[in-house]
Structure formats: structure tokens, C-alpha cells
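User: Please predict the structure of the protein below. I'd like the answer in C-alpha cell form so I can feed it into my own downstream comparison script.

Assistant: Understood. Taking the following sequence of 401 residues as input:
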Amino acid sequence: MDPDNRRASAKVNGEIITGTDLDQRVALIIAANEGVEISNEEMQRLRQQVMRNLIDETLEIQEAAAQDMAVTKQEVDQYYQQYAVQQFHRTPEQLDEHLRSLNSSPASLKRQIEGELALDRLLQRNVRPFVNVSADEVNELYQRLQAAKGTPEYKLAEIYLSSTPATHQAVGENAKRIVDQLRQGGSFPAYARQFSEASTAVVGGDLGWIRLEQLQNPTLESVARSMKPGQLVGPVEIPGGFSILYLQDSRQVGMADPRDAVLNLKQISLEFPKGIAEEEAQARATAFAQAAQRISSCATADTEGAAIGAQVVTNDNIPVRALPEALQQTMLQLSIGQITPPFGSLEEGVRVLMLCGREAPSGDSGPNYDQLMAQLEDDRVGKRTQRYLRDLRRDAVVEYN
């Protein structure tokens, strides 16, 4: 990939989307789906979808600026810093280097962030104020949920693809191809961000913890009820399109679960030089693990970590459930001030986690009135958002190379 390739792949109201822009965004998706083989045919479809996303993104940024709501560089940089720590467990500088190693760039990810922030502002002004949910609707849903106490609730993620009678078959076939890629190990959040038309796309399709009644769709309720954690199902045909569901976890309503504990952590990590031999990396990892064990407390972790050449990042308010399954039980068994065994790879380096605080879980009485109101509003905002974006596309001048 030539970073100096400024050839236009498309023009959106006169603004150029280059071949490099497209290549770098595709590289992000490929990296998120490491180990998954993508055929030439599938790659072509992926590039077409990413191009549509880049066009929508450009329209959103342009429209926000036209309405005097432009996202500033400072805002994007601040979000990027949070993203580096929370999503990649890296410093911003480490994330910069990581993205370049993937044949992508910090600018590509920052452009995606700018588009998401711009769309959020447009929705706050032009969509959300015109969505209404009545008190009767909220009360009806609340009563259904109260009657369901003691029953399971589910942590679901979704990918929604809309269709019309004319596009029904083509969209259904595309949904099947997405499911095939996911079953080969593709990243659900990555595919949701690029393909899903639901409002949850910006958070990787995550619906959070919900009771099935909150899906507001009998077909999806029935499908989700029979799923097991880790299971992927779809495409499920529903009114207006197709849905792909992934069940991340389940629990009983109102019952405390140890995995609902919230942790404060210090991540202590050591990077390896590029090209280091595996034997030398193992020796450094062993020495690092021994040195990390001697760190006396969370209060001194930053200075003591720096003294052994390590990077120390604070991660507060991390639910146990948000950690990889392999780490969950390990963290639940640690006492304050203890660290995990080292983990990592030649490419990512070696790291340990130090437990600095734990907030015990408590029984959950379920969503309150305001939360249910927000959920119903979000559902309607999602539907109106699709119409809003269609209007932006219709009024735009888009030229393809």
C-alpha cells in the first residue's frame, strides 16, 4: 500500500476519498479478524461495504459542519486516547505504532471516531427531539419485566441489515456470508461496526444486559431464549430485514454473580524489540514477571514499574465479565495488591494485571423507568436514523472513480 497514493476512489460533494483511505480502513477490519481467510470475492464485497461506510462518514462530518456542530481535533484526540487504553490496552503512542504495523494509520481510526461523534451530534439535534415514547408504553414494558423477575437475562450483540422486497434476496445472501465469516473466527464487533444498520453499530452491536421482552420482537425473543453463551445465530428474518445475534453471556435476574464485581486494575507491560528471538523474549518475560512480583503496592506501581522499564496503565471500573474468560476466574481469586501470571506474545509483549480494588456485586432489581424510557427511545431513534441517512445520501453528489 502506497501512503502517497492520493488517487480518488470517490468524491462526496467534492471531498475526495482516496484509495489509501479505503485500504487503511479495510486493514483495520482484517486485523480485527486475524486468522480468518477472506476470499477474493469476499474481499471485494468488504471493500464495497467499507466504501459505503466512508461515504456515509464523510456525509455525517460534512452535515455536522454545515450545521455549526463540527467535531474538533481536540475532541477526536481525547476520544482516541480513551480508545487506546480501554479498547487496545495501550498508550496512544503505542496504538499509533500498532496501527501502522497493520498497514492502517492513526488518521484512519481518528476519521472513524470523527464520523461517529458527528453522527451523534446530528441525531441529538435532528432526530432525538422528534421521538416520543408515552408513559403508558414504558409502564407496560416495566410491568412485563417485573413479572419476569427470577428469570434469565441475556448479554446480546446484534447485526441488523435492512431490506426491501426488491433487495430481500441479496441482503439475505450477504447476511449469510457475514455469518460464515463470523463462524470462521471473525470479530463480531468489527463486522457490526461496518455492516450493521442498527444504532448499536457504533458500540460493536452490543445491546448490553437485557430481558428478552426488551427485544420487542417475538421472533428474536424465541430465538434468543434457546441460545447458549458463546452461540451465534442467524440470519434471522424479521420485519424489515435480517438480524444476526450473538449471545455473550446470561444470568438470573436479581441474583448476585461474582462476575458482576467491578475491578480497579493496573496493567504493567513490557514490549519486546522487533525481531527478537523467541528464547531471548522468554528470558526477558521471566525476568519481567519476577520483577513485577516485587512491586509492593498499587500506590507505588507507577514508579516501581517505570524502574523496571515497564509501561503502567490504570484501568478503573472494569467489570469482571468484560475480561477474557481465561482471566475472569484468575482475577476473582486475587487479593488486593496481587498480580496475575504474565501473559502476552512476541508481537504484543508481556503484561500482568495488578488488582487495586474490587466492588462486590449486588442483586440487580432491573432497569428503572428512565432506563426503559431511554431504551424505547433508542429503538425508535435507530429506525429514524436510517431514514435520516438515506436523505443525506439522496441529496449528496457522489462520484466514483
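That's the full C-alpha cell string. The radius of gyration is 23 Å.
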